[in-house]
Amino acid sequence: MIAYAPAPRPVTARGDVLLPREADTVADVVPRDATFESLLRKNGVDGGTAMAVVDAVKNVFNPRQLKAAQPYQLTRTLDGLFREFRYEIDGARFLRVVRRAVGGDAPPEFAVDVVEIPREMQVVAASAEISKEHNSLSAALDAEGENVQLALALSDIFGGEVDFNSDLQRGDKFEVLFERIMRDGQFAGYGDVSGAILDHGGRAITAIRAQGPDGKFGWYDENGRSMKRQFLKSPLAFIPGPRITSGFSLSRKHPLFGFNRAHLGVDYGAPYGSPVVAVSAGTIVSADWAGEGGREVHIRHSGGYETYYLHLSAFAPGIHPGVHVDQGELIGRVGATGAATGPHLDFRIRRNGVFVNPVLERQRMPPGEPIPASMLAAFTATRDRVLADLSRRLAANVTRAGEH
After folding, report:
1. What fold, for 243-364?
2. Which pTM value belongs to this model?
């Protein structure tokens, strides 16, 4: 919740004068389907003042971005006059509206600003291992006191190398150096990940966050080669449970119709409503009903590639022909529309007009671009610093654990 000083309360002691309350403060969360005006009026602000507050807010913050379940606080004088409103935009900022003092019958004026919430950034390291007891990355990190947001960050980092929905196996280990955000002594989220190591099937994959030749930060392996690939290894955002239930085949017995026919994609069994993402940047060709394919998204990419996502339960907001999508952007949700026996995603790739095996095609794609020679020394210094810090902090974790 927003840090906010409560209204003064009466104090009595020997000889003290009883001080009356000067204001009432309401602290709550935004209800579903509320607007700024309806929220203010619900809490006793008159219609004219509520509209004036909304008009003042528009210069600093879009009132349409008010989100349900976010904390807010409203303070009014005892006679009902609006004094102050605070709304938590996110974990780092809150909106503050304060009524200015004006004389006579002049219309109300308001000071509106967005205030940074004081936070503490801690650099920490953690390790986790996929095991019988903790058979997913999120479960393994949870056992170490971290949450699923860190697992999602790692899936983004290594998503070009490993399919987190099907490739992880017992014995795989993660080591990660990252920022933990604290607010009022409580966990408030994660900042940047600086580096991570995935030991997958005996192969160590190192990821270092570093500045690339375009000036933007990206992920590079220990030799300075970009970890970004043209295609992600999976069209499903990292969630527990998805699995490949049917592979690419030119002749497969159809589960509904009973006769052999080509299956030109890969089926991922996944819970209904699971997020489906674009495996590569591209332009939406269609997002519509496709007969047996049910709700389908078709995307055109560079290099003569097209991808298809079938049997969706719903399209993501804004997904329609002509829209550009980035790699990893949400495009829809897993469903069972069309000719489907249960919730799953049928994912297909077409190259130069011919459908190809998605698994094999992904394996043939070239590795990422390397850091240019002129920037290699700076990258090497960053890599060595990050890996040394990661090793030191993990060793300190082991020492502390042994002391308890």
Report:
1. Glucose Permease (Domain IIA) (2.70.70)
2. 0.67
DSSP helix/strand/coil, 386? helix
Residue 282 · residue 301 · CB < 8 Å:
yes
Q: What's domain 23-116's architecture?
A: Roll (3.10)
SS3 194: strand
Whether 177 contacts 197, CB under 8 Å? no
Domain definitions of the chain by residue range = 23-116, 120-229+369-403, 243-364
| Interval 133-159: pLDDT, tens | 988 888 899 999 998 889 889 988 988
* Residue 298 buriedness (CB in 10 A; 0-12 / 13-18 / 19+): buried
Phi, psi of 258 (to 5 degrees): 85, -5
Residues 248 and 282 sit within 8 Å (Cβ to Cβ): no
Q: How far is CA 345 from the centre of its chain?
A: 21
Q: Which residues contact 403 (CB under 8 A, 6 or more apart)?
A: none
Cβ atoms of residues 100 and 111 within 8 Å: yes
Query: Regarding predicted confidence, which is higher, 52 or 269?
Result: 52
**Distance from the first to the final alpha carbon of the chain:** 33
Class of the CATH-defined domain 120-229+369-403: alpha beta
User: Which DSSP category does 380 fall into?
Assistant: H
Whether 23-116 shares its CATH topology with 243-364 is answered no
